[in-house]
Amino acid sequence: MLGVITTIILIGLFFVWRWNSLPGYWQDNEAHARQNIDRLPELANRFENKMISEASLLDTEGQLVTLTVPYDLANAWLRSKFPKWMANQGYLIPPPFSDFMIATENGMPVIAFRLTTPEIEQVISMRFAVQLQGDNARIHLDNCRAGRLSIPAESIIEHLGNKLPGYNIEPLIKLVRGVTFERVTKHPGHTNRDLRLMDIKFIENEMVLTLQAQRR
What is the pTM of this model? Predict the structure, then answer.
Protein backbone atom coordinates (compact mmCIF):
# COMPACT_ATOMS: atom_id res chain seq x y z
CA MET A 1 0.00 0.00 0.00
CA LEU A 2 2.83 2.38 0.90
CA GLY A 3 4.42 1.69 -2.48
CA VAL A 4 1.21 2.60 -4.31
CA ILE A 5 0.87 5.86 -2.37
CA THR A 6 4.51 6.72 -3.03
CA THR A 7 4.05 6.06 -6.76
CA ILE A 8 0.94 8.27 -6.89
CA ILE A 9 2.79 11.08 -5.10
CA LEU A 10 5.77 10.81 -7.45
CA ILE A 11 3.51 10.87 -10.51
CA GLY A 12 1.73 13.93 -9.12
CA LEU A 13 5.03 15.69 -8.47
CA PHE A 14 6.17 14.86 -12.00
CA PHE A 15 3.05 16.46 -13.51
CA VAL A 16 3.45 19.54 -11.30
CA TRP A 17 7.09 19.84 -12.36
CA ARG A 18 6.15 19.56 -16.03
CA TRP A 19 3.41 22.19 -15.59
CA ASN A 20 5.81 24.62 -13.89
CA SER A 21 8.74 24.06 -16.28
CA LEU A 22 9.15 26.28 -19.33
CA PRO A 23 10.38 25.01 -22.72
CA GLY A 24 13.96 25.86 -23.61
CA TYR A 25 12.94 27.80 -26.74
CA TRP A 26 10.69 30.03 -24.62
CA GLN A 27 13.46 30.76 -22.13
CA ASP A 28 15.91 31.52 -24.94
CA ASN A 29 13.46 33.87 -26.68
CA GLU A 30 12.65 35.70 -23.44
CA ALA A 31 16.35 36.19 -22.76
CA HIS A 32 16.89 37.50 -26.30
CA ALA A 33 13.91 39.89 -25.97
CA ARG A 34 15.20 41.25 -22.64
CA GLN A 35 18.70 41.77 -24.03
CA ASN A 36 17.36 43.55 -27.11
CA ILE A 37 14.31 45.29 -25.68
CA ASP A 38 15.27 48.67 -27.18
CA ARG A 39 16.12 47.11 -30.56
CA LEU A 40 12.96 45.04 -31.10
CA PRO A 41 11.39 47.58 -33.53
CA GLU A 42 14.67 47.71 -35.49
CA LEU A 43 14.86 43.90 -35.63
CA ALA A 44 11.21 43.75 -36.70
CA ASN A 45 11.92 46.19 -39.55
CA ARG A 46 14.92 44.10 -40.60
CA PHE A 47 12.63 41.08 -40.76
CA GLU A 48 10.12 42.87 -43.00
CA ASN A 49 12.83 44.23 -45.28
CA LYS A 50 14.48 40.83 -45.56
CA MET A 51 11.23 39.11 -46.55
CA ILE A 52 10.38 41.76 -49.16
CA SER A 53 13.93 41.83 -50.53
CA GLU A 54 14.22 38.06 -50.95
CA ALA A 55 10.71 37.71 -52.40
CA SER A 56 11.45 40.48 -54.92
CA LEU A 57 14.20 38.28 -56.40
CA LEU A 58 11.46 36.07 -57.81
CA ASP A 59 10.88 37.81 -61.11
CA THR A 60 11.23 35.22 -63.87
CA GLU A 61 8.45 32.74 -64.40
CA GLY A 62 9.51 29.31 -63.13
CA GLN A 63 12.39 30.74 -61.09
CA LEU A 64 13.04 29.17 -57.68
CA VAL A 65 14.24 31.16 -54.67
CA THR A 66 14.94 30.03 -51.13
CA LEU A 67 13.59 32.39 -48.50
CA THR A 68 15.03 32.02 -45.00
CA VAL A 69 13.03 33.14 -41.97
CA PRO A 70 15.36 33.61 -38.96
CA TYR A 71 13.43 33.11 -35.74
CA ASP A 72 15.24 35.88 -33.84
CA LEU A 73 13.98 38.48 -36.36
CA ALA A 74 10.57 36.84 -36.78
CA ASN A 75 10.00 36.74 -33.03
CA ALA A 76 11.02 40.39 -32.69
CA TRP A 77 8.35 41.17 -35.29
CA LEU A 78 5.77 39.02 -33.49
CA ARG A 79 6.42 40.78 -30.20
CA SER A 80 6.50 44.36 -31.50
CA LYS A 81 4.26 44.41 -34.58
CA PHE A 82 2.02 41.34 -34.69
CA PRO A 83 -0.86 42.72 -32.54
CA LYS A 84 -1.09 45.90 -34.62
CA TRP A 85 -0.85 43.92 -37.87
CA MET A 86 -3.71 41.67 -36.72
CA ALA A 87 -5.76 44.74 -35.78
CA ASN A 88 -5.24 46.10 -39.30
CA GLN A 89 -6.64 42.81 -40.60
CA GLY A 90 -9.77 43.42 -38.51
CA TYR A 91 -8.93 41.09 -35.61
CA LEU A 92 -8.14 42.23 -32.07
CA ILE A 93 -6.05 39.73 -30.15
CA PRO A 94 -7.78 39.01 -26.81
CA PRO A 95 -5.86 40.52 -23.85
CA PRO A 96 -5.06 37.14 -22.21
CA PHE A 97 -2.80 36.30 -25.21
CA SER A 98 0.65 37.90 -25.42
CA ASP A 99 4.31 37.37 -26.31
CA PHE A 100 3.79 35.16 -29.37
CA MET A 101 6.82 33.34 -30.73
CA ILE A 102 7.77 30.56 -33.15
CA ALA A 103 10.35 27.81 -32.83
CA THR A 104 11.25 24.40 -34.23
CA GLU A 105 10.90 21.13 -32.34
CA ASN A 106 11.50 17.70 -33.88
CA GLY A 107 11.47 19.27 -37.34
CA MET A 108 8.03 20.80 -36.80
CA PRO A 109 6.95 24.40 -36.15
CA VAL A 110 5.89 25.48 -32.69
CA ILE A 111 3.73 28.49 -31.89
CA ALA A 112 3.99 29.55 -28.25
CA PHE A 113 2.35 32.36 -26.31
CA ARG A 114 1.67 33.57 -22.80
CA LEU A 115 -1.87 32.98 -21.54
CA THR A 116 -3.02 35.03 -18.56
CA THR A 117 -6.49 34.66 -17.05
CA PRO A 118 -7.65 34.92 -13.41
CA GLU A 119 -7.24 31.13 -13.11
CA ILE A 120 -4.20 30.50 -15.34
CA GLU A 121 -0.88 32.18 -15.98
CA GLN A 122 0.99 29.84 -18.26
CA VAL A 123 3.03 29.44 -21.42
CA ILE A 124 1.09 27.46 -24.03
CA SER A 125 2.97 25.74 -26.86
CA MET A 126 1.34 24.21 -29.91
CA ARG A 127 3.41 22.03 -32.24
CA PHE A 128 2.10 21.53 -35.75
CA ALA A 129 2.62 19.12 -38.62
CA VAL A 130 2.71 20.76 -42.07
CA GLN A 131 1.84 18.81 -45.21
CA LEU A 132 1.98 19.97 -48.82
CA GLN A 133 -0.77 18.23 -50.78
CA GLY A 134 -1.40 19.11 -54.42
CA ASP A 135 -2.41 22.76 -54.64
CA ASN A 136 -2.92 23.06 -50.88
CA ALA A 137 -0.93 23.04 -47.67
CA ARG A 138 -2.42 21.67 -44.48
CA ILE A 139 -1.46 22.47 -40.89
CA HIS A 140 -2.74 20.28 -38.09
CA LEU A 141 -1.99 20.14 -34.38
CA ASP A 142 0.54 17.51 -33.29
CA ASN A 143 0.94 18.40 -29.62
CA CYS A 144 -0.24 21.02 -27.11
CA ARG A 145 1.55 21.78 -23.85
CA ALA A 146 1.14 24.00 -20.80
CA GLY A 147 4.68 24.60 -19.63
CA ARG A 148 6.16 21.21 -20.53
CA LEU A 149 3.02 19.25 -19.68
CA SER A 150 1.03 17.82 -22.60
CA ILE A 151 -2.65 18.76 -22.40
CA PRO A 152 -5.71 18.44 -24.67
CA ALA A 153 -5.88 21.58 -26.81
CA GLU A 154 -9.67 21.50 -26.61
CA SER A 155 -9.37 22.14 -22.85
CA ILE A 156 -7.73 25.51 -23.60
CA ILE A 157 -10.51 26.37 -26.04
CA GLU A 158 -13.16 25.37 -23.50
CA HIS A 159 -11.51 27.42 -20.77
CA LEU A 160 -11.23 30.51 -22.96
CA GLY A 161 -14.76 30.09 -24.27
CA ASN A 162 -16.03 30.18 -20.68
CA LYS A 163 -13.77 33.01 -19.51
CA LEU A 164 -13.76 35.20 -22.63
CA PRO A 165 -17.32 35.13 -23.96
CA GLY A 166 -16.94 38.58 -25.52
CA TYR A 167 -13.80 37.79 -27.51
CA ASN A 168 -13.35 36.06 -30.83
CA ILE A 169 -11.06 33.03 -30.45
CA GLU A 170 -12.00 31.55 -33.84
CA PRO A 171 -8.43 31.77 -35.24
CA LEU A 172 -7.18 29.64 -32.34
CA ILE A 173 -10.00 27.14 -32.82
CA LYS A 174 -9.14 26.84 -36.52
CA LEU A 175 -5.47 26.23 -35.74
CA VAL A 176 -6.30 23.55 -33.20
CA ARG A 177 -8.71 21.76 -35.53
CA GLY A 178 -6.56 22.09 -38.66
CA VAL A 179 -6.17 24.68 -41.40
CA THR A 180 -5.90 24.17 -45.15
CA PHE A 181 -4.70 27.00 -47.41
CA GLU A 182 -3.64 27.43 -51.01
CA ARG A 183 0.05 27.11 -51.83
CA VAL A 184 -0.20 30.05 -54.27
CA THR A 185 -0.29 33.66 -53.12
CA LYS A 186 0.11 37.07 -54.74
CA HIS A 187 3.63 38.29 -55.44
CA PRO A 188 4.26 41.37 -53.23
CA GLY A 189 6.29 43.12 -55.92
CA HIS A 190 4.69 42.12 -59.24
CA THR A 191 1.07 42.56 -60.24
CA ASN A 192 1.22 39.85 -62.91
CA ARG A 193 3.06 37.23 -60.82
CA ASP A 194 2.10 34.77 -58.12
CA LEU A 195 4.30 32.85 -55.72
CA ARG A 196 3.92 29.11 -55.22
CA LEU A 197 5.19 27.36 -52.11
CA MET A 198 7.27 24.44 -53.36
CA ASP A 199 8.81 23.25 -50.11
CA ILE A 200 9.04 24.20 -46.44
CA LYS A 201 11.53 23.05 -43.82
CA PHE A 202 11.86 23.82 -40.13
CA ILE A 203 15.38 23.66 -38.72
CA GLU A 204 16.85 24.71 -35.40
CA ASN A 205 16.74 28.50 -35.63
CA GLU A 206 14.87 29.22 -38.85
CA MET A 207 12.21 28.28 -41.33
CA VAL A 208 13.26 27.77 -44.94
CA LEU A 209 10.76 28.28 -47.75
CA THR A 210 11.31 27.38 -51.40
CA LEU A 211 9.15 29.59 -53.63
CA GLN A 212 8.54 29.64 -57.37
CA ALA A 213 7.31 32.57 -59.44
CA GLN A 214 4.49 31.87 -61.85
CA ARG A 215 2.30 33.92 -64.15
CA ARG A 216 -1.04 34.93 -62.70
Answer: 0.84
